[in-house]
Every structure is written in structure tokens, then in C-alpha cells.
Amino acid sequence: MATIQLQGVSRRFGETAAVSDVSLETDRNEFLVLLGPSGCGKTTLLRMIAGLLPPSEGRILVDGKDVTALPPRERDLAMVFQNYALYPHLTVDRNLGFGLSVRRIPKEELRRRVNEVAELLDLGPLLRRRPKELSGGQRQRVALGRAMVRDPKAFLMDEPLSNLDAKLRSSTRTRLISLHRRLDTTFVYVTHDQIDAMTMATKVAVLNGGRIEQLGTPVEIYDEPASAFVAGFMGAPPMNLIPAELGTDADARLVLRAPGVEIPLPRTAGRDPGVREVLLGIRPEHLTPVAADHTGPALRGRVDIVENLGSEEIADCEIGDLRVSVRGARPIGLNPGDTATLAVRPDLVHLFSRQSGRRLEWLPEPENADSVLVS
Length: 375
Description:
By secondary structure, the chain is of the alpha+beta class. The protein is built from 8 helices and 22 strands. β17 (312-319) and β18 (322-329) form a beta hairpin.
């Protein structure tokens, strides 16, 4: 039940900054997911928390205690590696108890802990087998069990599900959620898979280029992405990002315009704000195919490809020079070569600065005041 705090943590390899000035703090019993593409610094950050890499700058605290200079064995944190790192010549029960035997835990206590963990993870029938006799999911459970028998302050997990097939990954993900609730302790979990983050995390840190782009709950990350990077990373397919211009119409209403796009916004401008370049963000599931004579806000273009996902379909459409994805229940009502009219709800669009990529927000406007966007 530990808290983990990072204060201005950085790590450089020569002239390359792998992690730059990262600060965050977990709550007790948090399931924090470090999410991002390959090379974003998430594994480097986890290894610094574990003590396997020293930070170039900054401090790491566990339960308020500065552990920056402490070796891994003195941090009381359990690490679960991507490749499981099991001892091939030892049986499952000896793999589970190895760390305790090194610490010279009495045999009776060691056996009690191993049996408890084996029961919790359904490993009882496998205790006499060696790793080569186990499936990938079984090996993963042994790796988890080996960490659990220590009863650590927190668990650190480096993409532990990446070697599993889709079905096994889903079932193991469910098991991890259940374990987190039952163990009542802190998890820090590294992944590039947004489904892992959305389904398991209580909090997500999205990393990009060694920095945190956004820290929040899965719902906050998905519904209110802080940047175009987060918007384009989360979702399958990710959010459509369309270069657009924000201007006004004859009635002083704010309007977003791009080739094949015209979306009046439910706001007015007290004076002409001029033309402002923005990125228009629309989730694929927030686009709805409608009849060609639709008069409301819409995108207009041509259908290129339609993918069948079983219960859903995804259509890729050419809107001007851009490709836009639409996601909906099957049949979606679009076919390759069709002319498409896609209705848009103005209250569900997102705006980002085309220069900085940061999210643009409307300032609270007093009565009769101009509508103002700020980043």
C-alpha cells in the first residue's frame, strides 16, 4: 500500500534524453499505467523506480522516503518482467519461493506463502512442473506469483501481457484487475496497448518523447485529450484530426471550415475574431452516415474502404485530401465508392492548436462577451 512519487526525474544516455523532468505521484492502491509508443521512455521510467537505472536528475520517493540512491533489494518493490525471467531448471514451487529462500525466510513461512499464492493464481496443479512444461499464460501467472509471495509495497510490471495471444491477454487482464482489488496495493504498469490502459488503470500517464503529455483517469484521457498527440494515440481507430479554419458566418456564429467540412459551432462572436488555424478533432464513433440532402453540420467525401469487425464496421473516407475514419454498428450503411455525408454533433468536436498541438478550451464567457479560445 505504498505511494510512489517522482520529483523532476530525468535520464540521459549520452546526449539522448530518454526521460525529461517527469513529476507524478500515485495514490495508495493506485493502478497507474505508463502508456505510450515505443521509445517514449516508459520502460526507462519504470526501471528507475525499481532501482535498475539511476536517474540523471531528480528524486524518487516510496511512502515519502527518498530511495533514489538505494539498490533494488532495499526498495521493497516487486518487478514483473516482459519475458517472465523464470529459472528454467526450477519447478514452479521453487520459482515461487526462490526470493524468499534467498532472504532466509523460515521454511514453514515460505511454504505457507507459496501455497497461498498458488491457490490465488490457480497454480496448485502446476507446482511440480518446470517452465518449459507451461503455456505462456501459466508462465505469466508464475511470474506474478513470484512477485506476490514477497508481499511488496508495490508491483512494477513491464508489458507483462505482450507475449500472450489475444484471448489469453484478455483473460489475464481480467485476472490482474481482480488481483489488484484483492491485494489492495499499488501497481505501476508499463504498456503500449491502450486497451490495457483503458480497462485496468485507475490513472494513466501518457508519455511522448520522455515527457508526460497527460495524466488522468482513462475517461479523462479519452474524452478530453490534452493534446493532438494524446487524441491521435487513444482510440481504435484514433481521433480524426483535420486542419481547419475557425471563422464566422454572416450571423456572427463561429464556424469551422475545411475542404468538405463546414461545422457551425453553438457560439457567437461579438466581433470578427479573424481566421484562426486549428486542428479539428472528431472521434470515429461520433460521425454518423446520413442522407446526401442532410442540412446540418457534416463532412462530405467518398468512401474508400469498409472493414468488418463483426459487430461493428469501420469505413475509411476521403474528405478533401484527408482520410477520415467512421465507426459504427454493422451494417454501417456505407460501401466503397459511395459518396458519403457524415453528420457531426458540434458539442462533440475537439479543437487543438495547430502550432503547439495543445487542447483549446473555451473561456467561461460573461453575457454578451466574445467567445474566446485558450490553450
